[in-house]
Amino acid sequence: MTTAMRDTLAMRAWKALDTVIDPELDQPVTELGFVAALSVRGLETGGHEVHVLLRLPTYFCAPNFAYLMVADAHDAVLAVPGIETARVELADHFASEEINAGVAAQESFGSAFPGQGAGTTRDELEELRLTFQRKAHLACLERTCRQLIRSGWQVDALAETKLGDVPDSPERESLLRRRADLGISNDPGEPLFVESTGERVPADQLPARLRFAKAVRISIDGNSGLCRGLLDTRLQRMAEEAKG
Amino acid sequence: MYSKDGENYFIVDSHVHFWDGSPANQSNRYGKGFIECFYDYHRNLSPEGWVWTLEKFGKYSEETMIHDLFETGYVDKAIFQPTYLSDFYVNGFNTTEDDGAVAERNPGKFIVNGAFDPRDGEAGIDRLEQLAERWNLKGVKLYTAEWKGDSKGWKLSDPWAYRYLEKCESLGIKNIHVHKGPTIYPLNRDAFDVADVDEAASAFPNLNFIVEHVGLPRLEDFCWIATQEPNVYGGLAVAMPFIHSRPRYFAQIIGELLYWLDENRITFASDYAIWSPKWLVEAFVDFQIPEDMQSEYGVLTPDIKRKILGLNAAKLYDIEVPESLRVADAPVDSGEAVGSAPKVPA
Questions:
Q1: Could you tell me where the DSSP H helices lie in chain A?
Q2: Which residue of B has its CA nearest to A228?
Q3: How far does CA B130 lie from the centroid of its chain?
Q4: What's the pLDDT tens digit per position in B10-62?
Q5: Disulfide engineering: B250 pairs with which of A105, A107, B21, B242, CB 3.0-4.6 Å?
Q6: What phi and psi, each to the nearest 5 degrees, are found at residue B334?
């Protein structure tokens, strides 16, 4: 139970958190600056406990998205070999208490808010996640197509383009990840331009679909800039308050 | 009115508040969190020199507001949008009555909008009637994602919402402002969903549905319904200040709106006191779509700017515009590709 051991586990836990995505912004919570602190301590049993502190850009960030991120962070760090227990805490949020308790007890989002009636079931939360995975796929598809068009590809050719025709790039990589999330095959022979269901988009509908995908991409890029800015401003304000 | 380079612009600020978010009025930690959240928006997206202290931001005087809007802010008419938040603030955050008192002391300057919540049932219908009579309402501001008791929100397409919208129609309230915007309020169910606006806009073709904050952060969903419903408008509150901090992003928002809607269905707003109209109006009149985006988005002409800055809202609210400040009302097509686009999966 050395310091070195704890440091290694802390590094692995950070790395695990790279897989936790803000569903709305389609970026890891680690990159967005949402992880305020992470520490590992030894337990009497010989195992280790990790403590993760998350902070979001505003006090009123939507609780359903917050719940997803806290629950995902919990699952991600707990999957790190050597980590026995995890405490993931959402700080400075209007529903911190309910969400933290709900995730710790592995309850559904709905039952974390007693007195809120029927609440939202696990299925509904997963449906929400899926909606944003579809948006993320569409945005990544647009980025990939835009790059192809810039390098001389014709829009008409996109309907017949196979994954294997697309040169390696970070855009292609991120598209492949989004396809995998949705269970769409990444075989080189598969068509590039598909709906989030995996269904191919016919050539005559493709330009309009690509145009809509652009609006999705602009929307996601814009949100992510706004959230980063708000988080910076918030942290600055909190630091000033702490100084008095 | 604002004048620059020989062009004159009639200014309607479609979204202003007179609020009390001060500690004395806060009922609980939510009230504190709410005003701080607004303040972070203010501070993050305002240019240097325009940032207030949290104390001033929490509660500003009527004098300050009149000065910022009308004496230095070029505004010809401002539209009050209430935000009650009765659970967070002792006397409410910004009620119709608060706004109405300011409007009565400053005749000719303001339009007072009301609010309703269909979960109030029959009693709420009566209240809406009284509110409409007292303040001669032409518009309401709605928050569909507001939590209330065991409800985490409502939809414009709910049966009770339809009853209220029918009532609005009969009372002459024709402008329905819907907050489908950033998550600064406890919201959960359908936080991202604007589908109910689509349904209601089809069901009530005589009402105008102004989606505040142009659906940000779900711009694309808003654009999608707005192409299909001619009585759906985009309110620029919260989108405007990006003109300073992220001009290229702002160009994309405006470009997308012009593509999916047209120049007749976009309305300017400062969301005062989060931001002030003076710098927004000046920046917008100076603004142009960056050259590398012009092949796709085109350019903003003075006429387009005139419509967005005031004429579109003036039309919605029957505001008298001096003849010299009007533009010829040429019909504008939103673009041909849109109508034939495939149905978007939910």
A1: 3-17, 29-32, 63-78, 96-104, 122-150, 170-181, 206-243
A2: B44
A3: 24
A4: 999 999 999 999 999 999 999 999 999 999 999 999 999 999 999 999 999 99
A5: B242
A6: -75, -15
Nearest to B337 among A207, A216, A229 (CB): A207
Could you give the CA distance from residue B261 to residue B256 in angstroms, rounded to a whole number?
A: 8
Question: Which structure tokens are listed for A85?
Answer: 């227990």
Write the class of the CATH domain A3-120. Answer: alpha beta
- Domain residue spans in chain A? 3-120, 127-225
CA distance linking residue A57 with residue A33, whole number of Å = 9
Digit-coded pLDDT (tens) for A91-130 = 999 889 989 998 888 776 766 765 444 445 667 778 888 9
The mean of the pLDDT values for chain A is: 91
Calculated CA dihedral for residues B71, B75, B77, B82, nearest 10 degrees: -90
Q: Give the start-to-end residue ranges of the domains of chain B.
A: 9-318
Separation CA B160–CA A65 (nearest Å): 28
Q: How many CB pairs under 8 A join A and B?
A: 125
Interface test with A, best of B32, B44, B221, B289 (most A CBs within 10 A): B44
Signed CA dihedral, B47, B48, B50, B53: sign only: positive
Contacts of B129 (CB under 8 A, 6+ apart): B167, B171
What is the mean predicted confidence (pLDDT) over A80-95?
94
Q: Which of A62, A205, A233 has the CB atom closest to B40's CB atom?
A: A233
Q: Taking the domain B9-318, which CATH number applies?
A: 3.20.20.140
Contact B252 A222 (CB under 8 A): yes
Q: Please indicate whether, in this complex, the C-beta atoms of B219 and A219 are within 8 angstroms of each other.
A: yes
B220 touches chain A (CB under 8 A): yes
Q: β-strands A35-42, A48-55: how paired? A: antiparallel
Instruction: Give the integer Cα–Cα distance in Å for A152 and A167.
Output: 13
How do residues A9-52 score in pLDDT, each as one tens digit?
Answer: 999 999 999 999 998 889 999 999 999 999 999 999 888 999 99
Based on C-alpha coordinates, what's the Rg of chain A? 21
Residue of A nearest to B215 (CA): A219
Taking a contact as any Cβ pair under 8 Å apart, which residues of chain B between 75 and 114 contact chain A? none
